[in-house]
Write a structure and sequence with these properties.
Elements lengths: L1 E5 L3 H13 L3 E5 L2 H10 L4 E5 L7 H10 L6 E5 L4 H9 L4 E4 L4 H15 L6 E4 L2 E4 L4 E4 L2 E3 L3 H12 L7 H8 L9 H14 L8 E4 L3 E4 L2
Parallel strand pairs: 1-2, 1-3, 3-4, 4-5
Antiparallel strand pairs: 6-7, 7-8, 8-9, 10-11
Helix pairs in contact: 2-3, 6-8
Bound molecules: calcium ion (CA).
Calcium ion binds next to loops.
Length: 222
């Protein structure tokens, strides 16, 4: 999953980026509203964390613009303001959730997970693909009841494939949702990760869940 943070307090933005990266998310940061609007419209984000008070273009304007353009990416508003009116106008403008500063990183993380879950087709906290169960709240992965240990990046790739189960996902699409724009994109890296995940979830089982679709990409399906 790829998250865009639009926040002009550099220290805060960088701490949130570091924390989310450690959780396996790909994170882009915009330090002003103009860059934020451009990135929201042009980068394939799965979620946007949007501050309201921003230089050049404020967060509320960005939110209205992207919703008007038809972008349905979940938006979590971040702000120092905590009056009822601000919350109401944010939610009215198409925000999906709201967090008032100062906040604990754990709370931000919990809300991000909840929003991504809500936005996924299943709408539940776990996805079952045959005998594989992925718990998106705890990041636990089990196959036939046996716990499987994955790195944060491996988990992120598997979760993205699970949320988009039964669909062919190209290497480009997978890397776009796993890496931020600073990453030097080499789609071979996806093959490397797929092989690692395969070794962990498919090896030793007759039914393979990760399928290579020649010339197109990969698919997670029974
Ligand atoms: Ca601000």
């Amino acid at each position: 999953m790829r998250i865009l943070i639009v926040e002009d307090e550099k220290a805060l933005a960088d701490i949130v980026k570091k924390g989310l990266t450690e959780e396996g998310y790909a994170v882009d940061v915009a330090y002003n509203g103009e860059d934020g609007l451009f990135m929201a419209e042009n980068e394939p984000s799965d979620l946007i964390v949007l501050d309201i008070m921003l230089p050049i273009v404020d967060g509320m304007t960005i939110l209205k613009r992207i919703r008007k353009a038809g972008l349905k990416t979940p938006v979590l508003m971040l702000t120092a303001k905590d009056t009822v009116m601000d919350k109401v106008s944010g939610l009215d403008s198409g925000a999906d959730d709201y967090l008032t500063k100062p906040f604990l990183f754990e709370e931000l993380l919990a809300r991000i997970r909840a929003l991504i879950r809500r936005n996924s087709e299943a709408g539940t906290s776990s996805v079952e693909i045959g005998d594989l169960i992925i718990n998106m709240a705890t990041h636990e992965v089990r196959r036939c009841g046996k716990a499987i240990l994955l790195s944060a990046r491996e988990y992120a790739l598997l979760e993205y494939m699970a949320v988009n189960r039964d669909k062919v996902l190209s290497r480009t699409l997978l890397s776009e949702h796993l890496y931020d724009s600073d990453f030097d994109l080499d789609s071979n890296i996806i093959d490397v990760f797929i092989n690692r995940i395969r070794n962990k979830i498919d090896r030793g089982f007759d039914v393979k869940l990760i399928h290579t679709v020649r010339g197109a990409g990969y698919m997670l399906t029974v």
